[in-house]
Amino acid sequence: MISFKQNWDETLQRFDAWFHNKPCDRPLMHIMVKRSKGLQVPKLPEEPFTSDEDVYTNTDKQFARVMNWYCHDVKPIAEGFPKFSMDLGAGSMALYLGSEPVFTPETVWFKPFMENYDTPLQYDPNNFWWKKHLEILRRQVELTKDTDIVCCIPDIVENIDILSAIRDPQACCFDLYDHPEEVKTAMNEITNLYKVYYNPMYDIVKRKDGASAFTHFDVVGPGKTAKLQCDFAAMMSPEHFNEYVLPTLEDQCSWLDNTIFHLDGPECFQHADAILSIERLGGLQWTPGARNPKAGSECWFPLYKKVKEAEKGLWLMFTDYAPQEAIAMADRVVRKFGHKGFYFVFPVMSESEGEQLMLLAEEWGKCK
Q1: Alpha helical stretches, state H, 206-315
Q2: Which of 208, 298, 285 is nearest to 28 (CA)?
Q3: So what's the pLDDT on residue 303?
């Protein structure tokens, strides 16, 4: 067994506390430090990818890069953990329902196919991309079986974000007014299908103790863990969001064990109160968005205050900063708001910087 992380039990306990607003002795911290010396494991050959599609679907080639990364480049400390993530784009449920993918170097786009609401959205066990994704996940688990690398829950996505992908975003905007009941029916179908797709994926990738991790945001927790979102909310009024989206989010939070909502950009600020009102929601992941001030900037402090008052966790990413700048930004946030409920994701740093950060975190624990 190749083990990259020594404090799994402690990490799961800390994440459980974070997701459920329990006391902790310091903020959670995702830290990766550069290895001064690699493990005594030969580097795996990294074969070149033959296409954009190959990048997203070739599990063996991706595994070689993941293993080399953890064996020779970085090691996780604090709440950092080794992971192996393979998505078919953000919102792969669109593929399972019938969209065709457009693979690009940056992401995967989905071709809209839904011309009207005449045909219910249904589970197709023989859908090519659904079967392909299950095949990818099973191969991930097989390749990592002799390591403690966590294979992640894919970015399935839910609610009107999936509807807009398969129907077309502009059409969805008109549908809210022209076909409100049909939209609600489709949203209910998508909410139910999310569970149908999530459960077998969870059964494949879960750890032996039942814990699972979500692909992009470096969160892991006991039981079923997932990220929720609604990027389409940037184009919705609070009234429409509360009517169409909020019930679906409440439903997901009711059966998942650990949840984090991805709030993407200030255009979605108007929905923060509604999102934070969801009793079983664990935390908020804040993405400032392109061309806006980065995480830790004072202009976002009103949002941080709102999340703290709602007694939810708050995930902040400082990877856009150099390590020392990131540490300084996190320090400013803790001095202002205290440490409880924060989860900081830091850029890769040197071992000495990681040691400095761990010592500082002990001091942060005194900031209530």
Answers
A1: 238-240, 246-255, 272-276, 301-309
A2: 285
A3: 96
Measure Cα distances from 241 to 110, 165, 238 in Å.
Answer: 23, 17, 5
Distance CA 109, CA 58 (A): 18
Could you identify the residue written with the tokens 């997203």?
A: 56
Q: Where are the beta strands (DSSP E) in the chain?
A: 28-34, 74-78, 83-84, 101-103, 108-110, 150-151, 212-214, 219-221, 225-229, 258-264, 283-287, 313-317, 342-345
Pairing relation of β-strands 74-78 and 28-34?
antiparallel
Start-to-end CA span in the chain (Å): 40
DSSP assignments along 163-217, one per residue: HHHHH-HHHHHHHHHH-HHHHHHHHHHHHHHHHHHHHHHHHHH--TTS-EEETTT
Low-confidence ranges of the chain (pLDDT < 70): none
- In the chain the domains, ranked by start, together with CATH numbers, are 8-364 (3.20.20.210)
| Residue among 95, 80, 61, 68 at smallest CA distance from 150 | 80
pLDDT digits (tens, 9 = 90+) for 66-91: 999 999 999 999 999 999 999 999 99
What pLDDT score does 27 carry? 97
Mean of the per-residue pLDDT values of the chain = 96
